[in-house]
Design a protein that fits this description.
Helices cover 33% and strands 31% of the residues. By secondary structure, the protein is an alpha+beta fold. A hairpin with a 4-residue loop joins β6 (189-199) and β7.
Length: 208
């Protein structure tokens, strides 16, 4: 009986030891903290001066950045990143074409800036963050809109940084610009969600 008890105890200790030596493949979600979130309507720079001119500079830069991200994703064979970048590029292209075909071209063009401030709580430097800005119905708390972004920003351990993206799409398309400008943030609930974090050592945290 003593022999069997000792044997079970030995096996149990061995299993515990093995469990303790298995490394974690993903960092804890608490390695990065969202300190605050916000969105705001902004006038597109230079649009008043050239209302019938070419693609606005900010839109062009965002489109070029999307193309670069898609190429990097293809090089890294990351289908998820390719899909996200392609979706973002198509969104900007569609919004730009819609504005160009609008009947009244003399009104100022507005876009929307989405921003979060994050703190890197890990011991590793962050290279890029995929994040979503989600809007919810105030009564039902159901999701009514989601904007997906990738910010290629280096964030050192213990440091904070603002991640900001400017696009033409409003928070919720079903709300007209006048109502959005008048009531703004009181129309719906909102929250920012971390989707994917890439670290300088090559490791990645993915929101399950």
């Amino acid at each position: 009986m003593k022999f069997l008890t000792s044997l079970f105890l030995l096996v149990g200790l061995t299993m515990v030891a093995k469990a303790q030596t298995v490394p974690s493949t993903l960092p804890a979600p608490t390695d990065i903290l969202i300190l605050k979130q916000s969105w705001a309507e902004e006038r597109v720079p230079g649009w008043e001066k050239v209302p019938n001119g070419p693609e606005p500079f900010d839109v062009m830069m965002e489109r070029v950045a999307n193309e670069q991200r898609m190429q990097q994703a293809r090089n890294a064979r990351n289908p998820g990143a390719i899909t996200r970048s392609e979706r973002e590029a198509k969104l900007i292209e569609k919004a730009t074409v819609t504005e160009k075909n609008a009947k009244n071209q003399e009104r100022p063009r507005f876009g929307y800036r989405y921003k979060i401030r994050v703190r890197n709580l890990s011991a590793k430097k962050i290279e890029a963050v995929d994040w979503d800005y989600v809007f919810l119905d105030l009564e039902t708390q159901n999701e009514i809109a989601r904007h997906q972004f990738t910010s290629e920003e280096k964030i050192a351990p213990g440091k904070e940084k603002d991640l900001s993206v400017f696009i033409l799409s409003p928070p919720v398309k079903a709300v007209n610009a006048g109502t959005l400008r008048e009531k703004g943030h009181g129309l719906f609930a909102e929250r920012a969600v971390l989707v994917r974090i890439q670290y300088s050592d090559g490791s990645v945290w993915q929101n399950p």
